[in-house]
Amino acid sequence: MEERGVTVDAGGDPGITKRNHRFDKLLETPWEGADTLASLFEQACAKHDGRRALGTREFIKKEAELSADGKAFDKLTFGKYKWISFKEAFEQASCFASGLAELGHLKAERCAIFAETRADWFIALQGCFRQSITVVTMYASLGEDAIAYSLNETEVSTVICDPKQFKKLIAVSMHIKTVRRIVLMSDLEGGSQPQFPDSLTWKVTSFDEVKNVGGQKPLPANLPAPTDIAVIMYTSGSTGMPKGVMMSHGNMVATVAGVLNIVPNISPKDRYLAYLPLAHVLELSAECVITAAGCGLGYGSPLTLTDNSSKIKEGTNGDATELKPTLITAVPAILDRVRDAVRKMVNKKGGLAKVLFDLAYKRSLAVLEGSGSMFWPIEKSLWSNVIFRKIRGILGGSVRGMLSGGAPLSGDTQRFINICFGAPIGQGYGLTETCAGATFSEWDDMSVGRVGPPAPQCYVKLINWEEGGYRVTDQPFPRGEIVIGGPSVTLGYFKNQAKTDEVYKTDERGMRWFYTGDIGQFHKDGCLEIIDRKKDIVKLQHGEYLSLGKVEAVLIASPYVENIMLYADPLRSFCVALVVPTQAALESWATKEHVEYENFSDLCSKEVTNKEIMNSLQQVAKSSKLEKFEVPSKLKILPDPWTPESGLVTAALKLKRENLRKTFARDLEELYS
């Protein structure tokens, strides 16, 4: 067995430590001289000056359409991608930096970017770095209290935002203390700039005007040092107010160095589709990597991603069809939706098409699991060109690799993407506190459920967690809390020294370590598997330890489940579940079984529906060999999806357990009654 993670003595608390098998020393920079994000971007732009850098689709029109239940939805028509070169991107960032200074923003002041993912977001970021300005990032989905809290805690004086987020700022303007300037981006969907009350004291300047002013009055760059704070990133955590993670330029550059050495053959020939929140460390790191490699970076959104996305006008290409990306980053929830959309399409066709798809999938799965036939090369060509070609077209038809991060990816979805899209998935693991990727599964590793060996810029260690019964001496695999060390481990939490001291430590060699609270195990080849989380473990009445996250990751494989939260009362001997169903799958079942209902909410409330979903969960649980106490005894079906806007999931679509528990307290109480 090839060793992918090598055991080393790296100091710190006792445990088992691994490093990447390809590098004897931890990487800190991608190349000499690129020791900050500012220098990295400048050098990449100089090297690839004439190549396409940042692409934005041409907006054509917006139309309101009525759904079957009478609700109005905006449908958008877009044209081709319009590109700016690396040279132009650097010039725009430089002009923006000068314009920001001309507005009166000082180096010592902090600037916030509060907008959805787009080219101007990235240009603003790089512009701030040209003048050593620390950037505060916030999810566009943050609630009003969290917005005011983040801006006040960091004493932000300038906010760069889009029209949608500007309206949110106005709503909480009475509670924001230090903001004096707003830089307002244009509306990418053709809307007019928002109106604001006369009582507003902020100076509002358009994004283009800032660039124009900077172009007329250019200033020399005032570049940062590697130890300077590049970003204070506010995480929309699962509990309480968000925490600001302080990420230095050196931290971020180390992650870029590691990832550049993980993605096979990354080059300017690649095209990357950017649609995840740039305020999330996964997307921010990915875009820094992509630009460093000279790849084209085309912007889109989750609501315009494919031809069938909810905001795309029928007959209009989705972002993926238009861009034809070769590389995509995704969170598991997005990949689950892609899988469900394909299954819906296949089931709708039915007949011979479905028979052939099922056969092709079954045969392909057998090969991945090691039991293919001698005729597989011929079969593979047949299935690829006849059965899976149209499916690959959903994401543009050119994807050669994907990266999944932010949450555990189910084995079912991973296999589905491998087979139907013919592309490997590098599943990664990391946190905001470690500048994203701490581990990545390598593309030739066809196993499921693992997150690979340590990335080249960090160590990954397991230490005993006695309370939970996880020890590095466990057999057949060492298990324990995951601790990450190296140059990508961040500086700590802004204005929260107590929490910083709790989870960050510096050892006798000067190595900085972050204690994740996640539980993992090392496989024999040194690859990591995430098996638990301290906060997700509940001890039931009879002493059994129930891992909520582990069970949820299994049960979400049910075709009826869009989202699920397990809940366990420590004073009881069983658990219950809240389930958001997959509407298409549930309605398809209802039609097949002649279940009558008035609307989707009515269907969700029926006892026969509850029984059907419960049976499905029990089948999935049985096939995954869950213990009886791990399977929910009762469930409540909730028709409305959980979104970041509702405050029930984070921007990375992770569950906010406490918010869910409070919101559905009565339902949970009834399940236990």
UniProtKB/TrEMBL annotation:
Transmembrane segments: none annotated. InterPro entries: AMP-binding_CS (IPR020845), AMP-dep_synth/lig_dom (IPR000873), ANL_N_sf (IPR042099). Signal peptide: none annotated. Keywords: ATP-binding, Ligase, Nucleotide-binding. GO terms for molecular function: ATP binding; long-chain fatty acid-CoA ligase activity. It catalyses: a long-chain fatty acid + ATP + CoA = a long-chain fatty acyl-CoA + AMP + diphosphate. GO terms for cellular component: endoplasmic reticulum; membrane. Residues 75-494 form the AMP-dependent synthetase/ligase domain. Belongs to the ATP-dependent AMP-binding enzyme family. This is AMP-dependent synthetase/ligase domain-containing protein. The lineage of its organism: Eukaryota, Viridiplantae, Streptophyta, Embryophyta, Tracheophyta.
